[in-house]
Design brief:
magnesium; 11% strand; three-stranded mixed beta sheet; Isocitrate lyase; 19 helices; metal-binding; globular; 531 residues; 49% helix; 2 domains; TIM Barrel; Pyrv_kinase-like_dom_sf
């Protein structure tokens, strides 16, 4: 017996037990409403999606072709339309997640207005967006199930048993739009207690995976900008543990922690690590400090700091800001140490923020990490901050040079030019971009590929195109040809925007509650019937 039919029977039994209290309640209608609202709380979602991610991680370990993907979404409607599109085009949501970007929250969701990615936005906006995304995904479930229930009623009314059985099978095997969210907690918005409190709110809203970075909380910068400042490992590991405690307290025992390192591009630290003996984590962190070895107190100026390292006295270079510099060229070694340390102390996945999308560069670091932690795997930002076209054309150019091919027809510095679009070099570069995710999953340990800000850019691009046409000579044709006609022909569900906003579900509920007296919006005079 299907879950729906079991619920119908159970509610019918309740009606018998409670008698008059259930007067006018149709058990099938109540069971349908229950089926349309599978997840009752955010914690239900977090536990369900954590199981999905753990299963996907195990499948990736067995076969690197089984990598996962997501797009960053800054509004519940955007996330909903993404999952509706995935189900429409691919028939399943498997291996597809949502990404919640701190950058987009800062730029689009702060009450202060647009802000840079420096953790200046309200931290409460992070769990609020998680809750909003899952509200819209659950509404997508309810809408699709509502359509199936209407089709079931129509088949019954027509006496079409075959159609009824077909619709019933779709109901019984319905796949939810609810998928895992990897949610960005930035650097934790404060100390480890603040991190714990925010993590709890995020998990309660539905987050099964929380990404945290090793930058200083009050000096946090976007991963693709200069001026990044990292913290000693002990500080970062305390925050990882704080997130784990939050998961455990709320009963999401297999929640996922993504530890991000910005060390590849971060040349500064705010503090010298505490060290108790040579070779401990603090000593290793301090060993990357840039400075000069000194022989006596005479080499120390007023306000200088001196550290004992490698059996010698090191005077670290200190900037006017009070920050200390790391040695030039030490970034990759620091990344490897960060990643190994995080995995050995509670993290499940890694995030290495790089300055370019280069499989070889990523693989070089991951291979070193895997010498210590063999199943290390990454979440990787396929960032819009990269100029993908120029980066890959230059990679192909360099490969051609190394192979001894003639590159006299190309100007490496000007490879973005449209003049090169149909050349052998550009075609090969586009092929490498197309296969980048599969290649990096296979060769560089990337389990999850995401684009942080894609819907920020698509919203701007589509609005620019509409504004150009609608306010220009095309007038209304700019909207009809550029938007509505494409929606109809591509089967975009929200062309029926009243239905997408819940009008039909509301009509169904009115019928449940009021019977024949219900005043419905979807009658013959509804202009949406034109579609």
């Amino acid at each position: 017996m299907s879950t729906l039919n079991k619920d119908i029977d159970a509610i019918a039994q309740l009606a018998k037990e409670f008698g008059p209290a259930f007067e006018g309640i149709n058990p099938e209608y109540a069971a349908r409403m229950r089926a349309q609202n599978r997840f009752k709380t955010g914690l239900d979602i977090a536990r369900y999606t954590a199981d999905i991610m753990r299963k996907d991680m195990a499948e990736y370990d067995a076969n690197s072709a089984a990598y996962t993907q997501s797009l960053g979404c800054w509004h519940g409607f955007i996330g909903q339309q993404k999952l509706i599109a995935i189900k429409k085009h691919f028939g399943t949501t498997k291996k597809r997640y949502l990404y919640l970007s701190g950058w987009m929250i800062a730029a689009l969701r702060s009450e202060f207005g647009p802000l840079p990615d420096q953790s200046m936005h309200e931290k409460t906006s992070v769990p609020a967006l998680i809750e909003e995304l899952y509200t819209f995904l659950r509404q997508a479930d309810a809408r699709e199930m509502g359509g199936l229930f209407r089709a079931l009623d129509a088949a019954r009314a027509a006496g079409d048993k075959a159609a009824e059985a077909e619709v019933q099978a779709k109901i019984d095997n319905f796949e939810t739009h609810v998928v895992p969210i990897i949610a960005d907690i930035d650097a934790g918005f404060g100390n480890e207690e603040a991190t714990y409190l925010l993590a709890k709110k995020m998990i309660e809203a539905g987050a099964c995976a929380i990404q945290i970075e090793n930058q200083v909380s009050d000096e946090k910068q976007c991963g693709h900008q200069d001026g990044k400042v990292t913290v000693p490992h002990a500080d970062f590991l305390a925050k990882i543990r704080a997130v784990r405690y939050a998961f455990l307290e709320l009963g999401v025992d297999n929640g996922i922690i993504v530890a991000r390192t910005d060390s590849l591009g971060a040349g500064l630290t705010k503090q010298i690590a505490v060290t108790n003996e040579p070779g401990d984590l603090g000593d290793l962190y301090n060993s990357f400090l840039d400075g000069d070895y000194i022989d006596s107190a005479a080499d120390i100026a007023n306000g200088d700091v001196v550290v004992k390292a490698n059996g010698k006295l090191l005077k670290p270079k200190r900037l006017a800001s009070g920050l200390f510099q790391f040695k030039k060229g030490s970034g990759e070694d620091r990344v490897v140490l960060d990643c190994i340390t995080s995995l050995q102390n509670g993290a499940d996945l890694l995030w290495i923020e790089t300055e370019k999308p280069h499989v070889g560069q990523i693989a070089a670091m991951v291979n070193r990490i895997r010498e210590v932690v063999p199943n290390a795997k990454l979440v990787y930002n396929n960032s819009p901050s990269f100029n993908w076209t120029l980066n890959f054309r230059q990679q192909v150019f360099d490969a051609m040079v190394e192979a001894g091919k003639d590159v006299s027809a190309y100007d490496r510095a000007n490879l973005m030019s449209v003049d090169y679009d149909n050349t052998e070099l550009a075609i090969e570069a586009d092929n490498r971009i197309r296969t980048f995710q599969a290649d990096a999953a296979r060769e560089a340990g990337i389990f999850h590929h995401l684009i942080t800000l894609p819907t920020y850019h698509t919203a701007a691009l589509s609005t620019d195109n509409l504004a150009k046409e609608y306010f220009g000579a095309a007038g209304m044709l700019g909207y009809v040809e550029g938007v509505q006609r494409k929606e109809i022909r591509q089967g975009i569900a929200c062309v029926k925007h009243q239905n997408m906003a819940g009008s039909d579900m509301g009509d169904d509920h009115k019928e449940y509650f009021s019977g024949d007296a219900a005043l419905k919006a979807s009658g013959k005079d509804n202009t949406m019937n034109q579609f």
